[in-house]
Amino acid sequence: MALSDGTVSLQMAMDLLEGLEQEALFLAYQPVYEVRTGRPRGVEALLRWRHESRGVLLPGAFLPPDLGTGIGAAITDFVLQEAIAQCSVWRHSGLDITVAVNVWPAGLTDDVVPERVADLLRRYDVPADHLTIEVTEQACNIDPAAVRETFTALARIGVRLSLDDFGLGDSSLSRLQQLHFDELKIDRSFVKNALTEPTDRNIIEFSTQLAHSLGIQVVAEGVESETVLELLADLDVDFAQGFHMQRPTAPASIASLFAPA
Q: What is the distance between the alpha carbons of residues 38 and 237, in angstroms, rounded to a whole number?
């Protein structure tokens, strides 16, 4: 994408690069909990930008899907390094916490990404299965053949793969058949209305049954009440995350959540 094509302004792109250089970008971490036991299972790393004039920004305010190649690659590298480094800090303090990260869509066609992931895991002494790469179905459609090669390389390393925003794309079933995901994340748009909309409830139930039949674990996003959590347990969903349990927070707070009682 050309930086001045209207999707993201040239000024925003320049500010974003400056934000990277000045360490204004940071990660917050949201725990993922086992639905039936209530125990924290791991965390998702979520990018934030402490903008000098606009305050703390969420990715939707500055990361369009077709972000320029150079900036997208730089941000992907930043997120991977920060998340894996933090995972290492937790591990060496005695906390066994897995971490999931979202990869910039075009990064799925970049054959450098698996090499970079393997290098970071070695450098920070983090087991490959402690890292989950989350991708959306829309991202998988960029270049299916190249994406398959990248996924194969990541799976060979031992990294876990998660299909994010499940149910929003056009070919979810075919993606589950073609690519070997370890995890499926049901989009929050279905979860938030599951108590009042039978169709949304049925989508969660069907998706969970389908995933389990393929040996895939299921995470529900956007859980905002205890009654929704109870429904997810009835539907046999494995894991959940959302404001009801914990908002995204700093690494120190995550450490206290996972500390032995």
A: 12
